[in-house]
Design goal:
Length: 105
């Protein structure tokens, strides 16, 4: 079931190739226009990834959106999305949400 559709626009790419793995930071902006929330990603959104020598990836994205909820009340959403790559290139992710909106609580 789809709850929110968030459009993410990458704004950069920073990578450090270490001895055991590669660390990547992907800053981004974006927006959401869904029935329950409309708003924009605030500055500071970033997806951090650690990719090991075999290509397995662990990611953690954190960002805050500011906008209005389904009742038209101004609010913010904080999203933390943790994930790991699976065989075949798919990602398994688990988003965690926090909000100050009573309607979305």
């Amino acid at each position: 079931m789809e709850i929110l559709r968030i459009k993410v626009y990458l704004t950069g790419h920073i990578a450090v190739e270490g001895h055991a793995d590669t660390a990547v930071m992907l800053p981004f902006t974006g927006e959401c226009d869904s029935p329950i929330f409309k708003g924009k990603i605030l500055p500071g959104g970033v997806d951090t990834q650690r990719v090991d020598k075999e290509g397995k990836c662990k990611l953690s994205a954190r960002y805050t959106l500011e906008g209005v909820d389904c009742d038209g009340v101004p609010c913010k959403l904080f999203i933390q999305n943790e994930g790991v790559s699976l065989p075949g290139g798919e990602m398994h992710t688990r988003p965690i949400f926090r909000t100050d909106s009573k309607a979305l609580a």
